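Final paragraph of the annual report: two paired records, presented back to back.
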Amino acid sequence: IVDDGSSDQTLQRVKQLSTSFPHIKWAHHAVCQGYGAAIRTGLRLSKYPWIFFSDGDRQFVLDELTTLAALSDQADIITGYRVQRADPLHRRLNAWLFEKGMRYCFGLRVRDVNCAFKLLRSDVVNALSLVSSGALINGEILTKAVRRGAKVLSVPVSHRPRQCGQQSGANLAVIARAMKEFLSLRRELRATS
């Protein structure tokens, strides 16, 4: 569990859980570093051959991980795509525009790039030099992995309305940061092509 500088009781609850369940590992950012930084921290601290990640806002049905795991012999990355995305229209529009931008600028042909329900081979992810601290992290992972020859498989997953926390994906500062990271990734990939 990665707590990215939350101001609620997340850290205290995670500490309590890890006392009762020592297999729970956690990391804490003292200040919010961004969604991508939290994902990078979790990936870096993972120690098993496969890494699964999802957000903690209860929008995904974690039992559906078995669907992804059953396909692990067919791909290096198995990513969900939300069948009926339970987000407001403006978030769905932002996601559609982002996906088109990823396809046009990077040739990434993955449905629902930012779906936070992914199973990844750790050796594939560990070979990537990831730098995104914001919302671009999923696009960066997928783009760099595909360019290194990784096979990506997309599967449908359920998506529920958000039950807790605040959505930040439509926040202008988050969008501006994603655009800056998008342009930076484009420059990086052009320089290495």
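The closing record of the year follows.
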Amino acid sequence: MNFNSIIDFSSITGQKEIVGRLKSSIKQNEVRHAYIFSGPKGIGKKTVAKAFAYMLLCSRPGEDGGCGKCLSCRLFTGNTNPDFYIIESRGTSIAVDDIRNMQNDIAVKPLYSNRKVYLIVDGEKMTVQAQNCLLKTLEEPPAYGVIILTTSNYNALLDTVCSRCTKYAFVKNTNEEVRQVLESKICKSGDELDFIIQYADGIIGTALDLALSDEFIPLREKTVDILLRLATEGQEKFFEICGFYMENKDSIDKVLDIMLLTYRDLVVSLAGGKENMLINSDKKNKIISMAEKFTLEKLLKNIEIVEFTRRSIKQNANFQLAIETMIIRLQED
């Protein structure tokens, strides 16, 4: 299923204020020469950017996008419009040569539209040299050029780059907006979907990836089971439990997230919160039963331990040592 085919503003859920301002800028002929779309990974920055480009390049745009009939639109929907240029990282960075190639292209007038649109995906991956090179175009852009940078790390961009762009900060979607997208795209509902919506925390891209994954729900089941075993079994199962984390090293972020959400539910249950407040609502009986094995102080301590472990791993601590230390501390009285 290709969600990248969505290019019309009417197909976009959420980000109503940003979408409204972008559409208004086209209608009122107030399009800027450079934009930064900033927000968490998976929030929809690239999708909105492509919808904006589609409308910008159309010779007679409608209310929500291109007409779909002019040559520019037909080429755009076929991913062959030479007036739309995407720059993405090759490996871990966007190099200065990538920006120079863009500059060579922007010097040539558009072929099928009144504009040329350049989308730099994950702009924070530009090297310092690439960003400084981009400045030349941002300072003296051709009248027909529009540059859009997407970023999930706005602070990684040079101040000189940011100051020459119009910034749009993308906000997290509501749970209902995430549900609307999931039910329309994958036709799935139920308790598992409820958990995915809560886990995604307003990020539609994350929710779609998880809902389409064959691995996430089984991983969640195993993680919750391991967390229960940590609370009930002694040190004799230490190496078996360690094995679970080692086997799922590549998914450790998801494992730790699930642990934190489960500990959060245990806190809610122990504090007398209502069942509809639980993120793991389909496991409410197990959560309520498990909560009796903890004190509130221990649960809050365990949350700190898991968060400390995540930070240690991100700072390149020895993975096995970090996990073994976490397990020992979680099993302490």
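The radius of gyration is 24 Å. This concludes the annual technical report; the extension proposal builds directly on these records.
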